[in-house]
């Protein structure tokens, strides 16, 4: 029996994807809505925490693969008495940009389209990355049945939880559902035998779906974790936004145990030479240091930003000449 928990703040897509997810998973994994337990008018944090334990009891009693979506919090799951019966928690946090979240909530005419909701979504984001982050948010005035000793001293989730974060900002409802289903199936099938008499084909796709790309990345990450015997941290981004939430620059990167790789750094032409590139790079490097990285790597073109990176402490460590026509691709590294 494997259990999958899909959480996230309002507007992230939990309820929206439920119908599509149920259809995609079919009979292989049961799909449940957290609110099916019955939501009283005075529902509060204590109610949520106690209801989490009730759901664990039900899922364990049913004894079948199941997926629970709703207002579930990772630390609260682990603090429930019944969590001791689960070998490892599979938890997916659905996330979305602040601007998109508020737009979705306004469309629904919901009561929680405010700064408090953005604060809660930000806390959830940090919580899935750092078990130590502001634990009082869950502990203060909590349900008496919780035991936080299972996680309040750990510094990462590696040994207790398999965590995935899925940004639904640019995804349709069906694409988000497919991405969650791919994550569930990947975890379900990683030890399964190959199906006999199955034909495997090589397919070149110039317009791959987000779900297919996610499945490819999940497979690579799973292989890495198995070979290296440790969890590979996933991607993170740093954005340059205006007051309206519009993006004018940013970094996409990922970090492993000891290194961060800066895959993309872009600043809108109107804001270049104002120091924003350096600030974005510094923010990414600081995030990497927080996560135990000791060096940063990146690559650029000879006509692009080599001088910028050299000024910011990077040193060339390799070059592929004529990588594209007459231009060279340059690889750089910096000790953090």
Q: Helix proportion of residues, in percent?
A: 25-40%
Beta fraction = 15-25%
| Unreliable residue stretches | none
Structural class category: alpha/beta
Distance between termini? Answer: 43 Å
Give the radius of gyration.
22 Å
| Sheet of most strands | 6 strands, mixed
* Tally of separate helices: 10
Total beta-strand segments: 11
Read across the widest sheet, the strand sequence of neighbours is: 6-7-8-9-11-10
Mean pLDDT: 87
**How would you name the oligomeric state of the polypeptide chains in this document?**
single chain
* C-alpha geometry: globular
Order of helices and strands: EHEHEHEHHHEHHEEEHEHEE
Could you characterize what this model shows?
The chain is α/β, with parallel strands linked by helices and 336 residues long. 36% of the residues lie in helices and 23% in strands. It has 10 helices and 11 strands. Strands 6-7-8-9-11-10 form a 6-stranded mixed β-sheet. The protein has a 5-stranded parallel β-sheet with strand order 2-3-1-4-5, with helices on both faces. Helix 2 links the parallel strand 2 and strand 3. The chain is globular, with a radius of gyration of 22 Å. The relative contact order is 0.10. The model has no long low-confidence stretch (mean pLDDT 87).
What's a quick, concise take on this entry?
By secondary structure, this protein is of the alpha/beta class.
